[in-house]
Amino acid sequence: MRGPTGDDRIDTSVMHPARRYNYWLGGKDNFQADRESGDQIAGAFPAVRTTALENRWFLRRAVTFLAAEAGIDQFLDIGTGIPSADNTHEVAQRIDPSARVVYVDNDPIVLTHARALLTSSASGRTAYLDADLREPERILANPQLRRTLDLDRPVGLLLIAVLHFVQDHEDPYGIVERLLAALPSGSYLAASNVTTDFWPPQMAAEAKQAGTGGGPHGVMAFRNRDEFARFFAGLDLIEPGVQPVARWRAEGEPEPRPADAEAAVYCAVARKP
Fold first, then answer.
1. Are 29 and 113 in contact (CB under 8 A)?
2. Cα(88)–Cα(179) distance, integer angstroms
């Protein structure tokens, strides 16, 4: 099916993770297949909407830390998703109006919203690349990225809620290593990944089976704490280190905080020495 923007890659009859995530966040940029998949998953894992919201709030806190405390003024956000409240450039430019952001996503629906993503402060700059995390060299070589970011200066690399769509056979650790290798000392990695560590064994087994089986809900790589921490090998973890997503520097968030099983995502921020 040809999408509403004329992009042949948009098939509204097939679920897309970015649109399903938009649905869980309460957005309107989704279709029946996305809502059906989202509702089916929520039936099995009722806290999934809480997970989506907490992951989004982690993005806000991580960017705030990077811009306000770490002095990072340029960001590479891969797996951007459909625009929602507090996009990376909005958070960063509230702190530093000159901040620059390059967004990357392979969802054609996100491409239709690029104008919203590209709205920047007068002194800052944003760009959007239609590309896939699995092709880091293509991302890094893109002229738009090179025009927007100075890769000789520290960059905040954001891989929020995207790594779990890269299966182990697709070399996710190698992909992250190649991205970080192109960034100078003083750059940061902020990332998150779903986990089953906090779920009962039967529930965890069902989730892993569903995630690896593909089908109407797509594939998803649930990773345990050690598997997630491996993405930060050789980096200096920022306190409090690897944490459930609702706990990372969440002192200012509304109480009570969700239980770890309700927001079953690991997250961390680390500095490249």
1. yes
2. 19
| Mean pLDDT value of segment 234-247 | 98
Structural domain span for residue 138: 17-271
Q: Rounded distance, CA 273 to CA 75, Å?
A: 17
Confidence class for position 6, pLDDT limits 50, 70, 90: very low
The overall longest dimension of the chain from CA atoms, in Å, is 52
Cα 8 off chain centre by = 25
Q: What is the token pair recorded at 266?
A: 């690991």
Q: Residue 16 in 3-state DSSP?
A: coil
Q: What is the pLDDT of residues 77-108, one digit of tens each?
A: 999 988 777 899 999 999 999 999 999 998 88
As a whole number of angstroms, the distance between CA 9 and CA 51 comes to: 28
The answer to whether position 12 is within a domain reads no
pLDDT at 1: 33
Handedness of CA 148, 234, 61, 38 (dihedral sign): positive
* 10 found inside a domain: no
Domain annotation covers residue 5: no
State the helix-helix crossing angle for 32-44 and 48-68, rounded to 10 degrees: 100
Total Cβ atoms within 10 A of residue 24: 22
The residue assigned the tokens 């999934």 is 48
Interstrand relation of 156-159 and 188-194 (parallel, antiparallel or unpaired): parallel
CA distances from 154 to 72, 74, 79, 118, 175 (A): 7, 7, 20, 21, 19
Q: What is the CATH number of the domain that holds 156?
A: 3.40.50.150
Relative to beta strand 188-194, strand 265-271 is antiparallel
Looking at residue 4, its pLDDT comes to 40
Total domains present in the chain = 1
Average pLDDT over residues 162-180: 96
CA angle 105, 107, 112 (to 5 degrees): 95
Answer yes or no: is 11 within a domain: no
